[in-house]
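Figure caption, in words: inputs first, then the predicted bound structure.
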Amino acid sequence: MSTAFASIPVAPGRLPLLGHAFQLFFQPLPFLAGLRPPGGLVRVDIGRLPMYLLTDPGLTHQVLHDSRTFDKGGALFDKVRELTGNSLLTSAYDDHRLQRRQMQPAFARRRIAGYVDVMNDAIEGVVDTWSDGQTVDIGAACYDITARTASRTMFATEVAGRDAISLSDDLSIYLRGLFVRMMMPTGLRWIPTPDRLRFDRAVGRLHQAIDRVIASYREAGVDRGDLLSMIVKGRHEDGSAWSAKEVHDQVITLLLAGIETTGGVMSWTLYLLSRHPAIAQAAAREVDAVFAGRQPDFEGLAGLHLLRRAMMEALRLYPPGWIFTRVVTRRTALGPHELLPGDGLAYSPYIHHRNPGLFDDPMRFDPDRWLPEHRHEIPENGFIPFGGGVHQCIGDQFGMTEVLLALSAILMRWRLHAIEARPVMPVPRRATLTPSRFKVKVARRR
Ligand code: HEM
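Bound structure (protoporphyrin IX containing FE present):
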C-alpha cells in the first residue's frame, strides 16, 4: 500500500522480550494515561505482542462505530472469551447482532422500572444493617448491593444465601486475576502460582453454580419475570432454541459485566461526595426534597439533578471499565496510520476522561460541568464510560438506576465521614477501576 502512512510510535521504556510488561504490571494507569502520541495511536507491547492504544477521541469514535473493521477481540476479550464463551460481550460482528437483538428487550425502560423493587430490597438488605457510628467499608458494601441485585434480577429465586455469596466472591477473584492474565506475556501464563490456582478454582465453581441454576429453570419451564427467564427463551434466526451452553455464556457475561462496574460507580460517587461535604449535603437535601423519607422510586430519580451530576463525575474520573480491546479485521487506515488484519487495538475511557486537552482541569470533581448550560463544553466523543456504537453497554440504564437508588437510600439515612485523610486509589492491576480500602464512619441522619 501507499508509503504515505506514518509509522506508529512505540511507547517509551520497551524491553526486549518483556515489552512494556513492567509498566503495565506496576503502574498501568499512569503509564497509559501519560502517552500522548501526535497521531493518536501508540504501540504498547505485551511481551512480544503489540497492542495499539488509541489516545485520540476522534479515532476512538471511528473504531467504536465501525465494528466490522474493528471487531471484538484483542488481549482483553480473547481472555474474557475463555470464561464467557461466545457471548454478547465477546462475540464477533454477525453473532453479536443477533445476540444483541435477543437480549435488548430485557433492558427496555419498562423492564428496568420493574427491577426497582428488587434493587431496593438489595440496597436495604445492606444499608439497613449499618448502625450509628459504625465503620463501613464502602467498596465492599457497594459490591454486596450490586451482587445481590444481579443475582436476584437474574435468578428471581434460585440463588440465595451461600450460593449467591460464593458466586459474587468467585466473580471478584476472577476480575482480580483477569488484568494480570491479559497483560502477562504468553510464556508466563501457565506458571501454577497460588493466584493462578485460586483463579482457576473460582472459574470452575462459577461454571458449576450457573449450570445448576439453568438446569433447574429449564426443568421448571416457568417464566419468573427475571433475566434468566428471558434468556432461556433465546432463539436463533432459524427459530431453534439457544443451547444450554449459549444460555450459560450470556448469564455469566451479565454477572461479570454488571456487578463490579456498577458497584464501582456507586463507591466512587460516595468517595467523591465524602471529600466534598458541601456537595454531599446539598445532594442529601435534594434526595429529601424528592422522596420526603419514602423509599426511592423510579419516577423520582428524574428529579435528582445534583446527585446525577455527581455520578457523571464519578463515571468520568473513575470509569469502571477502563480498558477494552478490539481486533482489526481488514486492512484499513486509522488517522495517519495503516493497520492490518489481526492487529490488536485498545481504547480507554480513563485516558480520554483525564485528558486536559478535552476537559478543563480534568482532575477536579466538578458536578457543574454537567449543568445544561455547560454541556456544550463536554467534548464530542470524549466522554465514553459506556463505550459507543453497537457495543455500547446494554446495562447502562440498569446500572445508573441502581446507583441512584442506592445513593438516595444511603444519603437519606446516613452521613458519611471519611476516616482517612489519604486519597483512595484504584486497586492496581484490576480489570475494573475499584477503590482500594475506602472506609467511612456512618452517622444516622434520621
Ligand atoms: C454502571 C456501570 C457500568 C459501566 C460503566 C459499564 C461499562 C461498559 C462499557 C464501557 C462497555 C463497552 C465495552 C466495549 O466497548 O468493548 C460495556 C458493555 C457491556 N455491558 Fe456494561 N457497564 C456497566 C453496567 C452494566 C450492567 C449493569 C450490565 C448488565 C446487567 C452490563 C452489561 C454489559 C454487556 C452485556 C456489555 C456488552 C454489550 C455489547 O457488546 O453488546 N453493564 N459496559
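The pocket of protoporphyrin IX containing FE is lined by residues 88-89, 100, 253-254, 257-258, 261-262, 265, 319-321, 324, 385-387, 391, 393-395, 398-400 (CB under 6 Å).
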